[in-house]
Structures are given as structure tokens and as C-alpha cells.
Amino acid sequence: MTTNDQAAASFAVHIPDAELEPEPLDPLQIVSGEPVVTGKVLWESADGKQVRGIWQITPGVVTDTEANELFVVVSGRATVAVAGGATLEIGPGDACVLREGDRTTWTVHETLRKAYHISL
Fold first, then answer.
1. Residue 116 in contact with residue 96, Cβ under 8 Å?
2. Global pTM exceeds 0.85
3. Average pLDDT for residues 65-89, to the nearest whole number?
4. Exposed, middle or buried, 106 (CB in 10 Å: 0-12/13-18/19+)?
5. For residues 81 and 21, is the Cβ–Cβ distance under 8 A?
């Protein structure tokens, strides 16, 4: 389900079983391995500045430039190194906040699935 209608009905999604769609990585982001990304937008604000969804990545190492994001890890494990900042060890049940513009390196040890909210 994807909606941008703020008046849409409330809903629930069982995150571990949600079917996700391919979200190809830019090959320049891949440092090692053959990680595969899938995801699903569950809700987007009418102005496109708020996005909520589910995202998954298989093992490998990738780089990214982050948006303003809060996410909760549902399954899997990864190490997220923030350039000039902390190294975050994340796994099931962990909540993580990334700042807009953070340059990160994700070392995904086990396929990681998260539920997220991004503010653009």
C-alpha cells in the first residue's frame, strides 16, 4: 500500500513478511560483495517531503549520503560508519537516527530489513 492522501485510512503492515520491490543500487555505491536492495514506500506526504516505508539490503559493503532519517531494524545486522563520526552496530530492535548529509559506509553482515521515516 502506498498513499499520499493524509486522510487515507489507518493501516498496519507486518514488516517481516511485506513484499518488497527492487531498488537497484548505483554501481558506484558498491564497495564489495553483491548487495541487493529492495523496498516499499508505505506512505508519502503530498509535498513529497515525508516518506515512510520498508527497506532491505543483502550482505555486502555500500556507501551512501543520508537523508534526515529515523529507522528501526526489524532483522539482520550491519555496521554503519559515519564519516567523521560514530560507528554504529545495529541489529533487531535498534532505532537509529541519521542526519541529512551524513556520508556513510554500510557493512551488512546479515540481510538487514528496516522500517523508516525520512524527512526531505
1. no
2. yes
3. 98
4. buried
5. no
